[in-house]
Amino acid sequence: MMIGELEMVANEVRGLCEAITKGARRDQEQLLQRHGAGISAIEHGVLRRLSQGAETLAELSRLMAVTPSTLVYVIDGLVQSGLIVREKDLRDRRRELLSFTAKGRKLLAGIPDMDAESALVKSLKGMTELEREGLKNALRRLAGNLQSAADRGAELRAIPQAEMELRRGKVARTSINMKRRGVS
After folding, report:
1. Positive or negative, the Cα torsion across 126, 131, 132, 136?
2. Helices and strands (H and E) in the chain: how many
3. At what angle do helices 57-64 and 41-50 cross, to 10 degrees?
4. Cα–chain-centroid distance for residue 75?
């Protein structure tokens, strides 16, 4: 496949991912409404992450791929609703841990991950088992490849900076900076 063709496929995949993400988010909002949760999809996502144990806002931000500034408002709302609490980390007073209240735990327990009315469940029902397995496998592989490419991209972004420093005659600093960045 030529690179131009790959770019066209990648562009179509991006569009499909956007449509799936929008549809899945709308489906999640509808699920929350059907079960009278009274919270948004992002609030539900925070509660689900916290069900794995107490975490910081920075950890939630990284895991959910949402900026900390966006999550601050979500966390504030959940605290005001009495669903979570903020507590100082006893081992590191600079850190603030987030954890469930009994009210938050009860709310989350009453919301199923999926139900029969889910548009996603209905969409998958229209596919054969072989198609569903193929879709899951292809999406897992794509997600893994995207993560690997993102990791490589971060490594490669350090190289132009090192080259610029070389051109400016900063040879000694460049080798030190490259070693700090893990670039050889």
Report:
1. negative
2. 8, 2
3. 120
4. 16
Specify whether the CB–CB gap between 68 and 87 falls below 8 A.
no
Burial (Cβ within 10 Å: 0-12, 13-18, ≥19) of residue 90? exposed
Q: State the pTM of this model.
A: 0.70
User: In the structure encoding, which two tokens stand for residue 64, read together?
Assistant: 């959910």
One-letter amino acid identity for 172?
A
CB count within 10 Å of CB 74 equals 20
Distance CA 25, CA 17 (A): 12
3-state secondary structure of 97: strand
Report the half-sphere exposure of 112 (CA within 13 A, side-chain side). Answer: 11
Cα Rg of the chain (Å, integer): 22
**Length reported for the chain:** 184
HSE at residue 89, side-chain half, CA atoms within 13 A, is: 12
Three-state DSSP class for residue 70: helix
Per-residue confidence of the chain (184 residues) as pLDDT tens digits? 566 898 999 999 999 999 999 999 999 999 999 999 999 999 999 999 998 876 899 889 988 888 999 999 999 999 999 999 998 888 888 888 999 999 999 999 999 999 999 999 999 999 999 999 999 999 999 989 988 887 776 666 655 555 554 455 544 444 444 444 554 4
Whether the CB-CB separation of 73 and 79 falls below 8 Å is answered with: no
